[in-house]
Structure to design on (311 residues):
């Protein structure tokens, strides 16, 4: 290997640093002579913590500044949470590597230790996600949803400070931070499909930096890469972002890829959900096919109504 030093760009939250550190350890284990350092980059999403993501632009807020550092040579690779990566990748960059996925599902953490079904009527549920909000309201219309921003530690603190009955976060973050014991319930897909790419990491590099791409290639997990590719194709066809409750989850069984997805109104009253399956070699085509089915079944009307109300 010709590379002797790598600089990893990452956000500064505990979870982001854990994810970047995980990549660093894998690299130094594989290449003992390699020097790897983390470069902490503060993103717009980290600076604006008191406004819902849907109101300030969504996904790109957590990656733009890091991508700029890649483009101007301050870092050699970036480690993102896949669900934060927009569909449009800047020219000259690419997602070169997708490591093995962690638990993709959502987790309920309740004050009382009750699962969703046992929470009191009109329970106050904290979440930063319109996707979670819509699906939980579809399941229990009596829930009162409370907007909750901040890193994992902040959300756990706000559970008590804001007198919430429960919060919903990603199971992957709890596991990576050693906080899985706080989880009351792993919310099943029947109630809450995950965000596109949830639980997966994206390692982004400069497209023409062949040395770096080759150095990190061993981290790529083909199964995770193909499932995430299908999910992202679904989202791309729907042209969705944080402003729209969209969810999808792909699973691979042998050579067969199954993708389930949905589009919902923010209040959860309207929801179109469907699934497709086919060859794992057709991941992107399957994602597009699922999106078309959902649009043709009424998803187009849901999206039009949401965008008509958007500022």
């Amino acid at each position: 290997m010709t590379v002797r030093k790598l600089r990893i760009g990452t956000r500064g939250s505990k979870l982001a640093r854990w994810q970047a550190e995980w990549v660093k350890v894998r690299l130094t284990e594989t290449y003992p002579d390699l020097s790897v350092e983390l470069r902490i980059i503060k993103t717009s999403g980290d600076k604006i913590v008191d406004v819902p993501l849907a109101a300030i632009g969504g996904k790109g807020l957590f990656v733009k500044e890091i991508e700029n550092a890649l483009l101007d040579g301050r870092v050699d690779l970036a480690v993102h949470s896949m669900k934060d990566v927009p569909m449009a990748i800047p020219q000259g960059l690419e997602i070169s590597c997708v490591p093995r996925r962690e638990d993709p599902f959502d987790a309920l953490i309740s004050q009382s230790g009750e699962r969703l079904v046992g929470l009191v009527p009109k329970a106050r549920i904290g979440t930063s996600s319109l996707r979670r909000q819509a699906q939980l309201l579809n399941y229990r219309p009596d829930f009162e949803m409370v907007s909750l921003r901040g890193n994992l530690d902040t959300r756990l603190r706000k559970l008590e400070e804001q007198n919430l009955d429960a919060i919903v976060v990603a199971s992957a973050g709890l596991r990576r931070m050693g906080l899985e014991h706080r989880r009351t319930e792993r919310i099943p897909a029947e109630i809450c499909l995950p965000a596109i790419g949830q639980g997966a990491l994206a390692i982004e590099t400069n497209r023409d930096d062949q040395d770096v791409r080759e150095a990190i290639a061993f981290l790529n997990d083909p199964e995770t890469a193909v499932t995430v590719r299908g999910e992202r194709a679904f989202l791309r066809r729907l042209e969705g972002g944080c402003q729209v409750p969209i969810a999808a989850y792909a699973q691979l069984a042998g050579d067969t890829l199954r993708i389930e997805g949905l589009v919902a109104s923010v209040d959860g009253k309207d929801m179109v959900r469907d699934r497709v399956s086919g060859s794992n070699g057709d991941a992107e085509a399957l994602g597009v096919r699922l999106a078309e089915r959902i649009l043709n079944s009424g998803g187009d009307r849901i999206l039009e109504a949401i965008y008509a109300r958007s500022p």
User: Anything to note?
Assistant: The chain has ten helices and 13 strands.
